[in-house]
Design a protein that fits this description.
single chain, 249 residues, alpha/beta, Rossmann fold, six-stranded parallel beta sheet, 6 strands, binds adenosine-5'-diphosphate
Length: 249
């Protein structure tokens, strides 16, 4: 299983990334963790990126892309699966990550988009700040990271929609509920990836589901969306439009 995550800070991508990695027994590649580790160890790279992290700015693309290439090579040796957390964060990184993966024949099967409101994200990040003391969890820097997400990261979501690999989930609910929904969706995708080409699949939008996964009044039905994809017009990426993806994440 090859998954990449697109999510605003505080949506829970670290937690869900770890859950996915454990469930599918694949490496969890978290660029933020790798960068913070360099800062903590005071490596040469750590010294270069420290200011960017503290200010809530993106570090230069080539730094994280080198990390991804290295992680992909190790992941390939370990069986080819991965869950990417923290990259891509802009369209250049999205294209470059795709190119690197293509060379290694390991492009993502699923782009998992976690969606949540800014107010809830700020609340969660400030609560985390009290416990973890991450240097970028002050209110000013949090607002800056969120603005950056909306400006440069969120636009890549529709790109994955066009590629037919997008799964959007509502990350406003408790972590366990979100995690269950993600694993259920990924299990379905897992069984389909070898059967249906990416471009023939339709976006799965689970953000309209009620608190109980699969509730009758949900506006999106994963089973129907997936079953429908089998009949979708083949190989026409332009027809695989994302269903109702909104910029609330
Ligand atoms: P969050 O999503 O909560 O901001 P992360 O741990 O993913 O947390 O990232 C923390 C910081 O690491 C970012 O604010 C940024 O400075 C840096 N970073 C992580 N991934 C990337 C990336 N792909 N490109 C540029 N900078 C990155």
């Amino acid at each position: 299983m090859r998954v990449l995550m697109v999510a605003p800070p505080g949506a829970g991508k670290g937690t869900q990334g770890a859950l996915i990695a454990t469930h599918f027994d694949i490496p969890h590649v978290a660029t933020g963790d790798l960068l913070r580790d360099h800062v903590a160890r005071q490596t040469e790279l750590g010294r270069r990126v420290r200011g960017h992290l503290e200010q809530g700015e993106l570090v230069p693309d080539e730094i994280v892309l080198d990390m991804v290439r290295e992680a992909f090579v190790s992941a390939k040796a370990a069986g080819s699966g991965y869950v990417l957390d923290g990259i891509p964060r802009n369209i250049e990184q999205a294209r470059a990550t795709y190119r690197i993966a293509l060379q290694l024949d390991m492009t993502a099967n699923v782009a998992l988009h976690l969606q949540a409101d800014d107010d809830e994200l700020v609340r969660r990040l400030l609560a985390r700040a009290a416990l973890e003391h991450r240097s970028d969890d002050t209110e000013d820097v949090i607002r800056k990271r969120l603005a950056l997400y909306h400006d440069v990261t969120y636009p890549i979501v529709s790109w994955y929609g066009q590629r037919g690999i997008l799964v959007s989930v509502d990350a406003m609910r408790p972590l366990e509920a979100v995690g269950r929904e993600i694993l259920a969706a990924l299990e379905v995708m897992h069984s389909l990836v070898d059967l249906i080409p990416d471009e023939a699949r339709r976006t799965i939008d689970l953000t309209g589901l009620g608190a109980a996964f699969g509730s009758a009044d949900g506006s999106a039905d994963m089973t129907a969306a997936v079953a429908g994809s089998a009949d979708a017009a083949p190989a026409d990426a332009a027809s695989a439009k994302p269903a109702a993806v909104t910029d609330s994440g």
